[in-house]
Design brief:
alpha/beta; Nitrilase/N-carbamoyl-D-aminoacid amidohydrolase; 15 strands; globular
Length: 267
């Protein structure tokens, strides 16, 4: 069995040290669990702010943020998907997920392809879109990478399935209007249904790790982090609290399902 820890948090804007210490403390609080993969949310170190993105980008290797995560991976003997970090490369900014193995090595990174430029979103005004889907080989299996608004693009997930993904991780900062946050049931139902469908259609585990809480008087983040099985069963779910959800998953299940129904070979 593979132990998965998904850390839901409200990151503080422009306070990287506070955010990194929060990650460290939550991992430490869950150190009694068998943890083989830790997932952090989108913008976990910077918070959701264009000012923060411009003022505190990291280099192509993830800078001090990823170095901090590497030390946690070694200390707690776990693989870590470092949510997303604002990466600066050749004067361009990318919204990038770094994957760190148990030995503290970067074994892959993914630059967000589908930027949130709709319904009031303006991510693309600052961030450059990536152009390559990524699946990483870890000691627990093949892990596909997606970020937040990618969830609205089913073929992104189908491509990850074709590339062999057995687990897909989705670091997220899913924004909703504040009035929806006050009565979130419909938004949560939509969110859960969409993620369950991606997992079921592609026969992989899906680990969703979201930001939570109000940003300002107009916007909030949805929380509702999830761990979903290839049969669409919800194995763990958060509401709006800052905490970690945990589940142990059986990697024989996606392999068995794909041997019975060759999803990767069907268009």
């Amino acid at each position: 069995m593979v132990g998965i820890l998904s850390i839901q948090m409200k990151s503080v804007i422009n306070n990287k040290n506070t955010n990194l210490e929060k990650v460290k403390n939550i991992i430490e609080q869950n150190a009694d669990k068998k943890t083989d993969l830790v997932v952090l949310p989108e913008f976990f170190s910077s918070g959701i702010s264009h000012i923060s993105f411009k003022n505190y980008p990291e280099d192509e290797n993830g800078g001090e943020t990823v170095n901090f995560i590497k030390e946690l991976a070694k200390k707690y003997n776990t693989n870590i998907v470092a949510g997303t970090v604002i990466e600066k490369s050749n004067d361009k900014l990318y919204n990038t997920t770094f994957v760190i193995d148990r030995n503290g090595n970067t074994v892959g990174k993914y630059r967000k392809i589908h930027l949130y430029n709709y319904m009031g979103g303006n991510e693309g005004e600052l961030i450059t879109a990536g152009n390559e889907e990524v699946v990483v080989d870890l000691d627990i299996g093949k892990v596909g990478l997606a970020i937040c608004f990618d969830i609205r693009y089913p073929m992104h997930f189908k491509k990850l399935a074709k590339m062999g993904a057995e687990i897909v991780v989705l670091p997220t900062a899913w924004l909703i209007p504040t009035e929806v946050y006050e009565a979130p049931e419909t938004a949560q139902e939509m969110w859960i249904s969409m993620n369950r469908t991606r997992a079921y259609d592609n026969m992989f585990y899906l680990v969703i790790c979201n930001q939570t809480g109000k940003l300002n008087s107009q916007r909030a983040t949805l929380g509702t982090s999830l761990i979903i099985s290839p049969t669409a069963e919800i194995l763990a779910r958060a509401d709006f609290e800052q905490n970690a959800i945990y589940a142990q998953i059986d990697m024989t299940i996606p392999r068995l399902l794909k041997s019975c129904y060759p999803i990767a070979d069907i268009d």
